[in-house]
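Weekly modeling sync, notes
Attendees: AB, CL, MP (scribe)

Item 1: holo prediction request
CL wants a bound-state model with adenosine monophosphate before deciding which constructs to order. AB pointed out that an apo prediction alone won't tell us much about the pocket. Agreed to run with the ligand included and paste results into these notes for async review.

Input as submitted:
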Amino acid sequence: MAFTSIENVDFSGKRVLIRVDYNVPLNQNQEIVDDTRIRESLPTIQKILSQGGTVILMSHLGRPKGHEPNFSLMPIAIHLSKMLNKNVVFDRELFGPRTKDVTQKLKPGEIALLENLRYYKEEEAGDEDFASRLSELADVYVNDAFGSAHRAHCSTATIAKYFPNSKYCGLLLENEIFNLDKILNTEKRPFTAIIGGAKVSSKIDVIRNMINRVDNMLIGGGMAFTFVKALGGNVGDSLIEDDKLEIAREIASEMVRKGVNLYLPTDAIIADGFSNEAQTRWSEADSIPDGWMGLDIGQKTIKRFAEIINHSETILWNGPLGVFEFEKFKQGTKSMAISTASATIRGAFSLIGGGDSVAAINRYNLTDQISYVSTGGGAMLEYLEGKELPAVKALEE
Ligand code: AMP
């Protein structure tokens, strides 16, 4: 069975429990650094409120150990209230008579946000009793939390069975799946994947699954050095996963067999320490001296990668090409963001996901120039790996 979208459902007079993903970055002053996930949840919320439904939102934030105040959703309730221009009732107590009381008193068109689900260990355990108690708060369940869709937790999966005839997929979750399917089944070629980030280990399954779909695979970031070393290069003190050298070799030869063009960095900006204050110089990527580490792709690589992106019709990007958090090593990531945006303006379909790549595209104000920016990191990777997402499965059963 396929999931049912909220698109054609009438929510008037219904009490609707929506699982959103408000796991947004906060700074030390508890201020929201990036509110993309909150913004992207608004269409679902607004549809239900405007139809005269009552909305009860639930989310997790970070990984608290018990009731740590720094992980409270209070700042998010305040922010959401401003965005909706409407009071958002915030309940510090997730359960108990008070929660039920507060939510029962809500009138059609009113909205409340519950406290961090992960204050309760039952949430991650997928506890049945916890799910059943949560389900008593509403008549309808909507999941719109794509960022948490790869988790089989109480609020994302277990709870769905308590709403056998009234569980729906929110507009954001539906849109994410639509766009990921679009990229996985694209016929617009050439199809280029840009994969960066720190570790090969976290991206191996995606790379493997994408081998059967892409024409070009551009690999950058820290993980590129495991490939460069596996193919015989000297990478000095660059980030390496020695236990992944064999897999990197296997992946490279599988690409050759399947006719996929693998592009690794040919040059790098190297540094004598992992810091923005480190001394830097240029090096061939396969002859980095000991005591030095590659922290960004070099100009030759940028030019070559940009040319491939410019000739691509479908582009998937996950993971930064260098340590873009440091001013000195941001150029590779910035250039890929610009190339991907200009290819999109020319007519290519582009999809970017993963916290760091999305932060980069936001930082350079290019978000509107990308066809689709995913709100999910882990969930997006798992979907691209070909795995079934537990939250989606729960809506389908
Ligand atoms: P990931 O979460 O695996 O996508 O990795 C993102 C992190 O990779 C960012 O914090 C980057 O600073 C880091 N990164 C990118 N390039 C390198 C590099 N050459 N060496 C070390 N870390 C890197």
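Recorded for review: The CA atoms of residues 226 and 241 lie 6 Å apart.
Action items: CL to compare against the apo run; MP to circulate these notes.
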